[in-house]
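Ops channel
N.P.: pipeline sanity check, posting one input/output pair.
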């Protein structure tokens, strides 16, 4: 059977592309308006590839934050990726030479596409996940390049542009809600986030929420793995 991993991965990442390109254009514009050299935003998208953290990084650099502050902020913003990585250990175990790149490019949106074992027909699992990771990275870098180019010639007010990442998260959540076989993981995420937000406040709720989500996902695993009994 012909391997259709490349084509299937391209099609799967089209919804992410529509969000990534727009958001990355905003990031490129923000970098230009913040006075950074043209290549700075592109380099951040290639080597940091951190989505929301890249918007935060612009603020850290312009405010003269210390390395310790930057490190702690990065840990807080991306602590959820620790849990993403743990859940992908088995799926990436035999990914071969591409595994390091796949780990590096495991963003929220990429995770939503590669965390399932229900892959398109005719696809090799490891190749499909690699190409999904690659295409999403390409969309983000391409959008940044466009943003940097537009920032050179167009006036643009960047106030509030950082909210664009939140909008993308809402879009991904909605897509998962509409297509998932069970809503239990989504409900666990909403419940854990709401409780942690009320208890710990907006500045400290992320890590407790991730811990609560992990514990509840483990406890509810039998229900999650029986989709017919876990519909909400």
């Amino acid at each position: 059977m012909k391997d259709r991993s490349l084509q299937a991965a391209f099609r799967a990442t089209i919804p992410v592309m529509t969000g990534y390109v727009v958001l990355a254009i905003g990031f490129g514009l923000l970098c230009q308006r913040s006075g950074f050299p043209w290549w700075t935003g592109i380099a951040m998208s290639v080597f940091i590839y951190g989505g929301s953290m890249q918007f935060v990084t612009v603020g850290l650099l312009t405010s003269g934050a210390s390395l310790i502050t930057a490190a702690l902020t990065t840990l807080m913003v991306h602590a959820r990726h620790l849990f993403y990585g743990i859940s992908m250990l088995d799926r990436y175990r035999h990914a071969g030479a591409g595994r390091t790149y796949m780990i590096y490019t495991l963003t929220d949106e990429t995770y939503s596409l590669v965390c399932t074992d229900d892959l398109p027909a005719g696809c090799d699992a490891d190749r499909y996940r690699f190409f999904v990771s690659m295409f999403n990275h390409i969309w983000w870098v391409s959008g940044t390049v466009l943003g940097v180019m537009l920032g050179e010639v167009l006036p643009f007010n960047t106030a509030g542009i950082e909210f664009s990442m939140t909008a993308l998260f809402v879009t991904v959540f909605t897509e998962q809600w509409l297509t998932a076989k069970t809503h239990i993981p989504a409900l666990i995420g909403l419940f854990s986030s709401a409780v942690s937000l009320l208890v710990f406040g907006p500045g400290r709720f992320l890590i407790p929420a991730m811990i609560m989500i992990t514990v509840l996902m483990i406890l509810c695993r039998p229900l999650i793995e029986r989709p017919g009994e876990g519909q909400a």
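N.P.: looks fine end to end. The chain has two domains: 5-160, 180-232.
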